[in-house]
Amino acid sequence: MIRKYKSDLLESVRRAILVRHYSIHTEQAYIQWIRRYIFFNNKKHPNECGAKQVEDFLTWLVVHRQVSSSTQNQALNALVFLYREVLKQPFEYEVDAVRSKKPTKIPVVMTQAEVAMVLQQLKNTHWLMAALLYGSGLRLMECVRLRVKDIDFDYRAITVRSGKGNKDRVVVLDDHLILPIRNHLKRVQQQHDADVTQGYGAVYMPEALSRKYPSANKSWGWQYVFPATRLSVDPYSGVIRRHHLDASSLQKAVRAAVRNTGMTKLATCHTFRHSFATHLLEQGADIRTVQEQLGHRDVKTTQIYTHILERGAGGVRSPLSALFSQSSSLT
Fold this sequence. Notes:
InterPro entries: CB, DNA_brk_join_enz, Integrase-like_cat_sf, Integrase_catalytic, Integrase_integron-type, Integrase_recombinase_N, Integrase_SAM-like_N, Tyrosine_recombinase_XerCD. By secondary structure, this protein is mainly alpha-helical.
């Protein structure tokens, strides 16, 4: 069944998001914030609200719900979208709300030994996906949405399409993953052939491409490298097809793997990407190269990994060492 909302306003939001080709995750987040904004204002229509109501809502999120800076910004973005793109009202005023302070966070990074321990706890598809997160510095959704055509075995490269900021980039493909990926794709192709035989086999494609190449959605190159285990109904078109694997599947597997190693670090799927960047720099890679591999717009974002190296065991020597070297009575 095609996804629709009972509220005319929320349905208008859904259509505006669909026209702009935003992801279903963006739709879900924006709809949630708009709903909360409406309920916060005692179910008043947003047309009856203005700057003060927006400011009060954003302030309430920080003061009473204690949300993070990124969460508050997401709520603001949802309301800006509502007023500008759906209600066609200007949203040019400055929001004078209590703003959540953005903390300076040092990313969690695993050592190579710790990465190896976590990978040893993973099996089959989950192992391969985690190895790609670490070996190529992929974000979770970049890995999940990877298409067959975007893996170049000859050049040892992976093309990431429409990554964060809707940018494409080329990342390294480690030699050790070539054979596992080839074997994995053989099984995926068998599953795809079976789907085609049963009258399915189509995959989601961007709307413009689906019109330009109407039969390409069943071609092998456009299939997901990590397809879902079962067919499902597309919530927008109502078409039955095989989508990519749910990201939560890998997240749960990695959490369990980290727990089984006994590691105390709060490592997640994204920690593999942080570790990839840090270990590249440790091996002497130029920071601009690392920036390109990660797809960072600003090199300052990449420099956080140099700070980790400079402040850790490789960059700072504790003064306690001098005391130990001068006196044996400390032990």
